[in-house]
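Step 1: inspect the first sequence and its tokens.
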Amino acid sequence: MKGRDLLTILVLDLLFTVIFIALIGSPKWGFFFFIILLFVFWIFFSRKSVEETDGAEELRRELGVDGRTAALLYSAGYRDLSDFDGVILEDLLMVEGMRREQAESVMRALKERISGKV
């Protein structure tokens, strides 16, 4: 789970708790509401994280790249090989956290996959 997800959990939880306290008028019940929502949001975001890990693993196997590179690509919206149609090196370099060496290895892997199919 990323730090951004944890921040999102806390912000959403606090927002809903403040609304709950304003509607109910009892800070005591607001605390319990905060704890319950924290648990619910944690479960929701953890599940999302697991799905991303599974998808990145599949992408890693298809391309033959390392796990970090596959995770970066997956989080940038590249879910399967069809998402790479017409992609150029500069597109991959725009992925947040992608280094030139990683982008070049992805391009090599894509070219090998294409030449293997022909």
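Step 2: inspect the second sequence and its tokens, then contrast the two.
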Amino acid sequence: MTLYDGQKGGVYEVNGVYVEEPITRRLQALGLNDGTKVKILNRKKGGALIIQVRGTRLALGKHISSGIEVKDQAFYSVDFDHKTKEGSGNDRQGND
């Protein structure tokens, strides 16, 4: 399946990028390589996708997202929010 076929909120693994060579190189420089996990954050009416990849949000048009082969990672857990499990010390209530 292609990234364009994915669902909002879905997590996918990139299997291949099949667009024009300059675009492929740019996407790879941005971290969109084979094996990379991506999450679809939003779909726009014109066909654009907003995705999250390696902590960065990218907007991809229909032409580009249709050229990115992915496989579904529904059972793969990826922490895209990068929230820390432990507080920074600033969240203490002072109830010692």
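Step 3: confirm your contrast with the notes below.
The CA atoms of residues 30 and 68 lie 14 Å apart. The longest strand covers residues 11-17.
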